[in-house]
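Case 560 in the screening queue. Each case pairs one protein sequence with one candidate compound; here the compound is iron/sulfur cluster. For every case the pipeline is the same: read the inputs, emit a complex structure as tokens, and attach any notable structural observations.

Predict complex for case 560.
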Amino acid sequence: MSASTRGGLLRATVARVFRCSPGSASPTIRILNREVPPGAVRLLICMGHPHSIRVMIQNQKESKGAEDRVAVGRRAYVETYGCQMNISDGELMEGVLSAAGYCIVSAPEEADVVLVNTCAIREHAERRVLGRVSQLNGLKKVRPELVIGVTGCMAQRMGTSLLEKAPYVDLVMGPDAYRTLPAQLERVRSGEVSSSTDQGLDVLLEGAPDPDRRRPAGAGRFARQAPMPGGGRGKKRLQLAVLDLDSEENYEGLEQRRTSRVAAWVPIQRGCDHRCTYCIVPYVRGDEKNRDPGEILTEIRHLAERGLTEVTLLGQTVNSYRHGDWSFPRLLREVGRVDGIRRVRFTSPHPNDVSDELIEVMATEPAVCEHLHLPAQSGSDRVLRRMVRRYTAGSFLEKVEKVRDAIPDVALSTDIIVAFPGETEKDFHETLELMRTVRFHEAFTYKFSPREGTPATRLPPEDFVPEDEAQHRLEELIRVSREIRAELARSEVGRTEEVLVEGEARDPGHLLGRTRRSQVVAFPEEGRSIGDYALVRLTGTTGATFRGRVLDRAARAASA
Ligand code: SF4
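Case 560 output:
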């Protein structure tokens, strides 16, 4: 344990903290297994990295009678919107903040720092975030020292214009800058501007556009002094926009803060080398960056040692992963062989990278689940060409056939966009045809949402499908997809499935679990708890989820 004093406070770094009650009036604290008497230590807030926890201790001797002073650790709340990659980034930010000594809390009302981690895929999601941030401003009016940050893809896309739209926001940070999060938060709190790295916002607002339009104008760091909320008698605060686009940053060496005891998302790749014409991702997350396989495997071994048995490998086009000699199939095989890992999933693959080798690994590695999420986006070759997806409906169907030949029991899910500019009624019917041919277990369906800066927004205005027609197509697609899903679900009632228990169901005494094919089942708990595996007979379906019953030993033997 090393210690130093500052302002009457003993600042200590300890190797292990065994028990603490953050926020309690009389916390019981054990440091290196020795109980510290109440009164000697006034408050300790910590939940950092287990090997490096920073604590603030107020010691009576040091503070010379100022026993009523309390050193409060900072508390952060991260609210995440969007895809699994963003959820995983939320865990990464929590990990970075925990390691810097923050306590992660579960409500914005309890926090000193609130981060809204955003998605930019759809306009609707961005509007929702702006509404949420304005709601959080209500807290800032009561506590002007509250720091509000907006992070993620929307932050990168909007940049400093977000500070114009929502002037109560203190920090705007894109997905490549999370390593610097604690330092930038400190700067926001201290009001310090560093002229070597920060430029005036006005410079950014007039910034030259990126000539090849692969990246938005305005990547960089920007700062300005702004008035305190409510006028604040001439006092100023610092607003920061940290919009680094770093082609090397894949967050190696940082730990996510994972709360699930059952399953973990493991990012193996960031960014994307494709340029699908509707998609904002490459412009806000940059080009593809793949993590070192050794580090990925070490992380997964640690997860298995903690008792987690299921991992999902994450990447924007996860199966294009390559690092030196390592291809995605090789990595998938090795992950499936980590001791203690019983289930491996991955999302989202690009159809073009579904190779014979990948199919072979999926078919032969027992831990790799019989589920494949394969985004089709459209069933029309014309539309796929305009989307620059680089495959045809025919080649997509060939991949599906190969996967089904090798893994007959595989469950397939997909993403589909309707009303892409120029989509005709005929194109739309080809998409419905693809749905009926493949019979996906699940389809995530979207109406085209123009994203400023993407090539699709520059298509001729007359190509844009009118809103009522787009809505009509979406509803028709949802109807067809639900019909197929319900038919498949009804045909699967009576099957016996291995279920991993993920949580409690809404009905008291019932649990919720997921099958290897990613179907959700609710069943009476019968001695099982979260993290357990159970053999469950599917007894009924709502069309989307299943009801089930745990098989007793005799039934298990009979079904084996
Ligand atoms: S593959 Fe296409 S849709 Fe997927 S993230 Fe990359 S650009 Fe976007």
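Case 560 observations:
- Residues 535 and 556 are 7 Å apart (CA to CA).
- The pocket of iron/sulfur cluster is lined by residues 272, 274-276, 279, 281-282, 316-317, 350 (CB under 6 Å).
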